[in-house]
Design goal:
Blueprint: E1 4-8, H1 30-46, E2 49-53, E3 70-73, E4 76-79, H2 91-100, E5 104-107, E6 119-122, E7 125-130, H3 136-146, E8 152-157, H4 164-167, E9 168-170, E10 176-178, E11 192-194, E12 204-207, E13 210-214, H5 218-226, E14 230-234, H6 237-240, E15 251-252
Parallel strand pairs: 1-2, 4-5, 7-8, 10-11, 13-14
Antiparallel strand pairs: 1-15, 3-4, 6-7, 9-10, 12-13
């Protein structure tokens, strides 16, 4: 079985200056954030993921949210063009690392914008949030990159949260999970489950039914355990203040060689 890799990037000393869109700004403790990041990346390694650290982007406060820089399907990497112009310098080191790992690299070109956090892959279906950070041209370029590889691309409206994956992610059985007040519509998803906490809508599939998720969603963790999954909670409170969640702190390359 091919090794599972996860791209990560350590937090910038300027993390507290990160962008906020749908929440009020709160003080962020950079030292605590670094400790939480180390615990998060340690959990990935503990569950069989090789972490690959991309060069720091200390001048980019949001650089730790590495998921937004790229979308990978099979062995093709589509380098994002973030909707926030200040985040565009984050992509170059990620592009370099993915090329070194053997990916075929493509790019989103202007006037298209695409944030990786707007993209949810469920099997060969790719849901892409059309909202604040990803525009129609970005969706079109995503289709052009991945539909020839067998993907089915479904555009989903996003208006209540920063990214699609701020609202929904998916369980191993392809059930899409979401916190109802933040989901524009569940109608795009054949199977869905509503969860009782905002941060409970975000899971990283570690393999073997294990779900990496925020410690701030204990009721949802109990729900998942009742469904036969094994929650792996981590405290990411400092990143949640910046609209971050467990998915956006890494880029998982489980299907790199599929």
């Amino acid at each position: 079985m091919p090794s599972r890799k996860a791209l990560i990037r350590r937090p910038s000393p300027r993390l507290a200056e990160g962008l906020v869109t749908h929440v009020e700004r709160r003080p962020v403790d950079p030292e605590l954030a670094l400790a939480q990041w180390e615990t998060y990346t340690g959990a990935l390694r503990e569950h069989g993921w090789e972490t690959v650290e991309v060069a720091p982007a200390d001048d980019c406060p949001d650089g730790v949210f590495i998921e937004d820089t790229v979308v990978v399907f099979r062995n093709v990497a589509l380098i994002a063009r973030p909707g926030a112009e200040s985040r565009r310098p984050e992509t170059s080191a990620v592009e370099e690392m993915l090329a070194r790992l053997g990916c075929s690299v493509n790019w989103v070109w202007g006037p298209g914008t695409l944030d990786g956090g707007d993209v949810l892959k469920v099997g060969d279906t790719i849901y892409v949030g059309r909202g604040g950070r990803t525009n129609a041209d970005g969706v079109q370029q995503l289709r052009a990159a991945f539909e020839p590889l067998g993907a089915r691309v479904v555009a989903v409206p996003v208006s209540k949260v920063l990214h699609l994956k701020s609202a929904v992610t998916a369980l191993p059985d392809s059930t899409v999970i979401g916190y109802p007040p933040l989901v524009d519509s569940f109608s795009h998803f054949p199977h869905h489950l509503q969860v009782p906490e905002e941060s409970g809508a975000h899971v990283v599939l570690l393999g073997g039914g294990k779900l990496l998720m925020a410690a701030s969603a204990p009721k949802t963790a109990e729900l998942f355990a009742d469904l036969g999954y094994e929650p792996v909670p981590v405290d990411i409170s400092e990143f949640e203040k910046l609209e971050g969640c467990v998915t956006c702190l890494s880029v998982r390359l489980r299907d790199l060689y599929a």
